[in-house]
């Protein structure tokens, strides 16, 4: 399976299992600072308000950014890793995660993230695609070949993300989401 097919598989799995939840709103390919030398694009941005009926509930909402990465080369391509939310995730395959583990442990990945986008949040985690009903530990030991036609996959967190501060205003990020057109 090629990178494009894996990217589509991961995108569809993310949309189906995490983004289409009641009361949460998302947009694809959200441009930040377009038409400037600092232009960046987030693969998916989700806004989750505290509730749907009060101003304070909406203002207590959080943003989660998702970057789809099909392989280790994609991670280090210089594209993406644009984390502007309170929570941020790399969405990838178990194989890619296993390839990244030495860099995560050594600090090489963190150094690349700071170099690639100094404005990116340090609060990020990793989700991997796993067949439904399969334990994360079993998938780590014996990864399942990805079947792009299968709908029985889900995303599981292998590196949790702590909630961190956001440097952009809610109004700006909601406008960027709106401008992306979905």
What attributes characterize this protein structure?
single chain, 182 residues, alpha/beta, 7 helices, 6 strands, globular
Description:
By secondary structure, the protein is of the alpha/beta class. The protein contains 7 helices and 6 strands. It has helices at 3-19, 55-59, 72-75, 94-106, 108-116, 136-141, 170-180; strands spanning 25-32, 40-48, 62-68, 87-92, 125-131, 153-159. It has a 6-stranded mixed sheet with strand order 1-2-3-4-5-6, with helices on both faces. It is globular and about 45 Å long. The protein starts with a helix and ends with a helix. The model has no long low-confidence stretch (mean pLDDT 93).
Q: What is the average per-residue confidence, as pLDDT, rounded to a whole number? A: 93
Radius of gyration: 16 Å
What is the string of helix and strand elements?
Answer: HEEHEHEHHEHEH
Compute the number of helices: 7
Tell me the overall shape. globular
Spatial arrangement of strands, main beta sheet = 1-2-3-4-5-6
How large is the share of residues in beta strands?
A: 15-25%
Unreliable parts: none
In helices, the fraction of residues equals: 25-40%
Number of strands: 6
């Amino acid at each position: 399976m090629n990178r494009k097919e894996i990217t589509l598989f991961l995108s569809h799995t993310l949309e189906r299992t995490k983004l289409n939840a009641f009361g949460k709103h998302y947009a694809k390919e959200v441009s930040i600072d377009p038409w400037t030398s600092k232009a960046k694009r987030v693969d998916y941005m989700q806004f989750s308000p505290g509730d749907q009926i009060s101003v304070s509930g909406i203002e207590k909402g959080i943003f989660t950014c998702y970057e789809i990465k099909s392989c280790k080369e994609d991670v280090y391509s210089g594209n993406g890793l644009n984390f502007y939310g309170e929570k941020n995730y790399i969405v990838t395959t178990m194989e890619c995660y296993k390839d990244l583990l030495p860099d995560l442990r050594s600090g090489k990945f963190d150094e690349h993230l700071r170099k690639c986008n100094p404005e990116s949040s340090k609060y990020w985690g990793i989700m991997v695609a796993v067949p439904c009903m399969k334990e994360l530990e079993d998938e780590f030991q014996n990864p399942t070949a990805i079947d792009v036609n299968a709908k029985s996959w889900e995303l599981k967190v292998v590196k949790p993300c702590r909630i961190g501060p956001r440097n952009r205003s809610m109004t700006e990020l909601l406008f960027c989401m709106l401008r992306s057109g979905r």
